[in-house]
Amino acid sequence: MNLANLMSFDRAPKKYHQALLIARLIPHDSQSKPFYRCIAGLNHPWCYGRVPLGATRRFFALIKNPDNAAIIRDEIRRAHGKYGRQGEEPKVPEMAFPYTQLLLTQAFFLDVDDPRGHYASGGGMEHAVLDPNVGCFWYWDTSDEGITIFDITDPLNPAYGHAFDDSPFVHDAEYYVRAYYGENCGGDRMTEIDVQCHLDVLKHERVLSSEVVATVWPDRFRTWESAAVKESRNDEPFTMTLLPQLPSLQNLVLRQVVEQSTDDDCDEYLGDIAAALSSSSLPDPAQKALVHVLRRELETNPGILDLSAPRCTLSSDAIRAIIPSLPSDVVKAINLSGMHTLNVQLIIDILKAFPHLIRLTLLDTNISNEEIMYLLSSQPKLFFRLHDLIHPALLTRSPPSRSSASFPNNLLLPNPLPIMSSLRTLHAQHTSSPLSFTILQTDRSKYFGATRGHCIASISFFHPEKVLRGLTKYLKGLRVDIQSKMFPDKYIDGQVGPLMALSASTPLSSSPDTTQAMKGFPDDREERLRWMGRGVGMVPIKGTYGESAKGWTFVLDYVPPISLASIHLGMKYAGYGFIKVDVDTEGARERERLVWELMQTEVVPKPSDSEPEMKKDAADIEEKLATMTSKTVKVYDIREFVEAVVKEGRPKPSEEVIKAFEEAISPSPLGPVLLSRALKKMTVEEVKGVVPGLGMDEPDNSV
């Protein structure tokens, strides 16, 4: 692709398509009856033809994952009673449903599963957000590519529909794509094959009725349809699909005790046990029976301990009493969702008791955001073995409070954002932020070598294997043989890749997306579908949880081989590094002192008779910080990073995962589009040139 073609593509008129999410919410002035309203939206500037069909498939695959569905339901539950009906106060904020918005963004802007031709487009989450309180065709452009509407009230049984500005009805995928391409795609065999592949999947999905959509936007949609249109639909009457739920522990335990008492001809404890199972303590017979039931469940449902409500109503003391009797080396996941009898000490005891625990789920509990964030910052080593902590505090784009992260993050932040290079606000966060892992990706594709356009995304850092798995999947996307030569360019420019890398959960059992998929994009359809339906356990925040000394940053400074920037820059930029400020050196302690002093320059009391105005020159302090950076910052390659995190007390990632990462940064053997050289570890000086706060100007760090 020559420069003229690239420039003409960049100037081509955009093809806008909107994706809108609706759900039934209980309004703030109602106690029980829910109504449909729009809760989130996304604007895609390059979405047309078959692209919305593929995005719909990917979105459904994500929300139908039972673990993801549970998080979506909890996000909707927390919204009940907060907002008005469509068009009424209180309005829904633009990022009120950050987890669901993250899934929608990944589905529409990124497809790294299809070996026939990977897809990336659009900007980051905030770039694409729509106001859910306005009309469905309010954001219209002259290039009308329609809209897609999703009903996610029940994420396990969702519905979709497409609509055009000139039609008062909602249509299925077949109608939408034929309106664009015509019958048989005008004789284009390859396009028709791809279209039919999407239609074969979507024909089994529920299609929204115009009547339902008209309850949200009555001025745009009619509340009646012809008999022929209704007959062609696949939308059965809506029924809420229950998440997979194990039988009540009380029933299972009572059954076990009844069987045992029959064998022993002794039933004196039956009445006491029935009452005790929902009380604050357990008598010995009930405790033994409960442990027996849970051990049997751990065998049939390997490693998963489900103590969620309503199947479990035990108190913290009762749960704590049975922990020593459970096989500590077997338990890999514990679900305490719905429990409102928990306390922080129980969470600590659980994390200490099960050395192989990789997932802890705490949805709809009495453990607050502040309690979780305090634990993360005050006792970080408790969490080092975890891969996923599912709690609302880590499912938001904004840090839960100003005291627990480096800055409050939402759509109203000034530009440029106050991130690491704005050191004046960091001293308080230096001791209260959770340990974090951040991806910082430069985007030189727009600026021909300038370091503006950083993508910064951050999560709380637990097990290093989790982040290496995500990074490997992400880096593989830069290097595959592609049909669209614009893919690597948009993969960097689109900025959704780091979100995908940091948010993906670790499967509880060995599956293709954690083994074979790590070695490259799988050709097998089943394995690709498993990645499409991956678990997503965190929402990365935009920016960092704290100063570099509080966590690790993965830096990627890369120019795709086929891009506008590569024409000007060639392969000059192909580096990576894991960086961290060495908190144990004298220089780091001096840095902290200077940060505190620099922060005081913003505290300038107003002049008064009793208190003169105080002023300090911040330039000298900032100059000292810049000159001492090289003494406190270290850059690590993959093996050095693993060695360093093990010294911190974290588990060592498996050799398989380490080698998969090394393969991802090596020259690609896949097809004609290759990196001319491997990604190399960056020097400290190179890192200072791209990392905010280490010697350069502040970037626009939109994700």
Topology:
Elements: H1 3-11, E1 16-25, E2 35-44, H2 51-63, H3 66-79, H4 98-109, E3 110-111, E4 119-120, H5 125-128, E5 144-151, E6 159-163, H6 173-181, H7 189-202, E7 206-207, H8 210-214, H9 227-231, H10 249-264, H11 270-276, H12 284-300, E8 304-306, H13 316-322, E9 333-335, H14 344-353, E10 359-361, H15 369-378, E11 388-390, H16 426-429, E12 436-441, E13 455-460, H17 464-476, H18 487-494, H19 497-503, H20 525-532, E14 541-542, E15 551-558, H21 564-569, E16 574-581, H22 586-600, H23 618-632, E17 633-636, H24 638-647, H25 655-664, E18 680-681, H26 684-688
Parallel strand pairs: 1-5, 6-7, 8-9, 9-10, 10-11, 12-15, 16-18
Antiparallel strand pairs: 1-2, 3-4, 5-6, 12-13, 13-14, 15-16, 16-17
Give a verbal description of the structure:
The structure is a single chain. It contains 26 helices and 18 strands. Strands 12, 13, 14, 15, 16, 17 and 18 form a seven-stranded mixed sheet that branches. Strands 2-1-5-6-7 form a five-stranded mixed sheet. The longest helix has 17 residues, at 284-300.
